[in-house]
Amino acid sequence: MKKELIFVTGASRGIGAMIALALAERGFEVGCLSRSGDLPKVGEVAKEISARWHAAACDVMDDSGLAAAMSELCERLQVPVAGLVNNAGLHTEQPTIDLPMDEFRRLMDVNAVSVLRTSQLVHPLLVANGGGVIVNIGSFYDKLGVKRNVSYCASKAAVGAITRCLAVEWARDGIRVIDVAPGYITTDLNREAMESGPLRAYLEKRIPRKSPGQASDVATLVASLFQEQLQFLSGETIYLDGAQSVSV
Questions:
Q1: Fewest CB atoms within 10 Å of the CB: 29, 100, 161, 166?
Q2: Which Pfam families does the UniProt entry name for this protein (predicted)?
Q3: Of these residues, 152, 184, 202, 239, which one is catalytic?
Q4: Percent of the chain with pLDDT over 90
């Protein structure tokens, strides 16, 4: 396959790191964007795979810094841009009656506004390559009513709306836009809570398969969406929650 670049935000740890790994394993060059500027932390990786990772430090809330990081990677690698994974995000919770509007706006900015802005920045790069794919990482909370989570639920619902609008508007440019909405996923950041204690007991009751998903589940799905054979898939939200959100 020809060399092509895919940007992944929040790529240093968690789900983003596993997505960066899955894309590199499929032969893509991966622009690993994160505040730390670190390469993905996923354990031991073959050198021919890690050689496809290219890290740059930036904050998705800093438009100029984000644009500069993307431009620097394009200049360094000199390969066409095939896609973007908007993975960076934030989760906080508190009673809605006590929720400061600044905190609500912060989650909307990080989880939704950054998705739109990063997509705007990558758009001309995808057009120059004849089109491409944008995958937004949402959440199954986008269709649920969850106590203490109005900011997170609203921000992830916005991700779904952004996905649908961009998919329609940018289809003429050869750009597909898809929302992947995970449920409870075990990562390096939450493993202890997911594998023991009250949360684990809750998940065993609520998830039909009795256990949470793995970051590799999300990564495998996301990487598969960059296949050329999926040209008619766009504008959809794909729920990856072990059927939890449809279980009664």
A1: 100
A2: adh_short_C2
A3: 152
A4: 92
Distance (Å, whole) CA 242 – CA 224: 18
177, β-bridge pairs: 134
Q: Report the sign of the C-alpha dihedral through residues 234, 221, 179, 201, in that order.
A: positive
Tokens of 193: 């809570």
Q: In the annotation, is 152 catalytic?
A: yes
CATH superfamily of 5-246: NAD(P)-binding Rossmann-like Domain (3.40.50.720)
SS3 180: strand
Looking at the predicted structure, is the pLDDT value of residue 92 above 80? yes
pTM of the model: 0.96
Hey, which residues does 164 pair with through a beta bridge?
none
How many Å apart are CA 10 and CA 17, to the nearest integer? 8
In single-letter form, the type of residue at position 209 comes to R
What is the pLDDT, as a whole number, of residue 109? 98
pLDDT class of 129 with cuts at 50, 70, 90: very high
And the tokens for 214?
């793995």
Write down the domain spans for the chain.
5-246
